[in-house]
Design goal:
The chain has 255 residues and is an alpha/beta fold. It contains nine helices and seven strands. The protein has one domain: NAD(P)-binding Rossmann-like Domain (Rossmann fold, 3-Layer(aba) Sandwich). Strands 3-2-1-4-5-6-7 form a seven-stranded parallel beta sheet, with helices on both faces. Helix 1 packs across helix 9. Bound molecules: nicotinamide-adenine-dinucleotide. Nicotinamide-adenine-dinucleotide binds next to helix 1 and helix 7.
């Protein structure tokens, strides 16, 4: 049996990462580029995406930034077309873009509910629907969706977000069944408490520290921890895995 080279797991492949201007998405884009992928960084923060793309290029990698809001089907279609135009293919899609505003359920407006569902869940439908025809034509591909352990925990003040993240796990399972016959794998990661800049805005240091004793591993879980699992699932190392959700949470939850 020939094992894939572990130094360039994504050599010759093109990957599109949504929400790649910051946090977990930025880390995934950098990790993929270091493993040989040509990376498209899609984000509504075009300047941020361009900054990460420039850092990847300075590191010897290949990357391009696309400005698009994942709620906007036309902008997404244009970004996917531009990506195919530039790299000729998309082998890996990471549906990472997301937002997690906190609000008690009884104060939640219908508008905010719809918006959080659009950013976190409908975006996965829109991006996957645009990219999958290219993967089907190629006869291969991998999609990695980013959910959240809050789905398993049922965290307060996140009813819209938790509902969306549960939907992603369901969509992962259905898509895996529908596209497996084309050699395409669809998997999901549920991060735990990852100390990104956005997480710092919604959770105090005390709140973040309070999670650590609940984890098996008594340390902060970092964006790179999630990126390494995304690399595993996107590459040949995870070649027999599809329809699965992996928790990357230091052992916070056990189911
Ligand atoms: N940080 C955590 O503790 C944690 C835990 C579980 C799950 N997650 C999930 O991981 C993913 C990344 O989270 P993060 O903490 O790195 O967030 P982040 O805010 O640091 O990064 C999110 C990126 O997505 C982009 N983005 C947001 N809305 C967008 C939109 N409508 N269109 C295009 N781009 C958009 C932002 O500009 C940003 O660059 C999200 O799906 C989040 O729900 C995070």
């Amino acid at each position: 049996m020939t094992l894939p080279s572990t130094s360039h797991l994504l050599d010759g492949q093109a990957a599109l990462v949504t929400g790649a201007a910051a946090g977990i998405g930025e880390s995934i884009a950098i990790t993929f580029a270091r493993h040989g992928a040509k990376v498209v960084l899609l984000d509504r923060d075009g300047d941020g995406a361009a900054r990460v793309a420039a850092a990847i290029a300075a590191d010897g990698g290949t990357a391009r930034a696309e400005t698009a809001d994942v709620r906007d089907p036309a902008a997404l279609a244009a970004a996917v077309d531009a990506s195919i135009g530039a790299f000729g293919r998309i082998d890996v899609l990471v549906n990472n873009a997301g937002a997690y505003p906190r609000r008690p359920f009884l104060e939640m407006s219908e508008t905010e509910w719809d918006d959080v569902l659009a950013v976190n869940l409908k975006s996965v439908f829109l991006c996957s629907r645009l990219v999958l025809p290219h993967m089907v034509r190629q006869g291969a591909g991998a999609i990695v969706n980013i959910s959240s352990v809050t789905f398993f925990l049922g965290m307060e003040r996140l009813a819209h977000y938790v509902s969306a993240k549960g939907g992603i796990i369901g969509l992962t399972r259905v898509l895996a069944r529908e596209v497996g016959r084309h050699g395409i794998r669809v998997n999901c990661i549920s991060p735990g408490a990852i100390r990104t800049e956005s997480e710092k805005q919604v959770a105090t240091v005390e709140e973040a520290n309070a999670v650590i004793p609940l984890q098996c591993l008594k340390r902060r879980i970092m964006p790179d921890d999630v990126a390494n699992v995304a690399l595993f699932l996107a590459s040949g190392l995870g070649g027999a895995i599809t329809g699965q959700t992996l928790n990357v949470d230091g052992g916070w939850i056990h189911y």
